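Dear colleagues,

As part of the handover before I leave the project, I'm documenting each prediction I ran so the next person doesn't have to rerun anything. This entry is a single chain, and its sequence is reproduced below.
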Amino acid sequence: MLLDLVASQKVVFVGGKGGVGKTSIAAALALGRARAGARVLLVSTDPAHNLGHLWDRPVGDEPVRLAAPSGTAGHVDGLEIDPERTVERHLAAVAATMRRLLPERMHGPAARHLELARQAPGTHESAVLERIAAAVELGDEAYDLVVFDTAPSGHTMRLLSLPEQLTTWSETLLANRDRAERFGAAVRGLGGGRDETDRDAELRRILIRRRDRFARLRDVVTDPARTGFVIVLTAEPLPIAETTEVYEKLVGLGVKVTALVANRRSPADAGDLLARRRKREDDHLARLRRRIPDVPLVDVPLLPGDLVGADALTALADRLARTP
């Protein structure tokens, strides 16, 4: 059922409370779509990466082939966004731009500012968001679907709110640059230099590229025909309470919630203890249903064995293809 729900989408975020099985569901979803012929890019944005452990093979900061189901042109490529490498690369690009645009006397102060920015609030999120935007753009070029295995809910909600904020911020900077350029033009009319004109023009181009990238990401994330969010939970009070909060925040951000996945459901026919647990889970899910009545709810049973490797993920993908 879940595979059918995401079949028409180009971007799927899989999120929820920590420890509910987001990575497993994201990986099985990616594999299930690949078995149907889709070219899938599976991206982990969670600093506590588990894709490599789950697939039982190294996964790094560049796409690597994880699966190529026989009898189909589909495949799964995976990458784990490395936060430290992402920040380093982000700051190195900013430093190169600053050295090119600023007078030499400003290079020292600019370098000191960047060192302070390395640990500043928001630096990590901005850099990771750049990689998310790049992954979405790569998906447009080379894949049919991009699946994001996200960090726990609070971090992910913060990231999803940033494209709108950064687009607005970039537009404000551009407006300020426009006013500064008009003033600069008047000064140059009195004998100003050409170098300053070139620097202003390049800075404007950089701001426009950044604004347009975040604006495109915002438009993709809020397009219900293209993007959806799958909330993974376990049928327990805290994950269900957090699911309700995440759902309301996503609706507020304009992000479509495609499905709720109740993971690791206890069997009802494996002894009295598990039967009683199953009954409590049913009661919790009934309350969730009353709060969120219009989003499909998919049950995924507790599976035997360790969920590691292609065979285990194939079994889970089979479960995601079934009706409730």
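Residues 153-188 form the longest helix (36 residues). The radius of gyration is 23 Å.

All the best with the project,
I.
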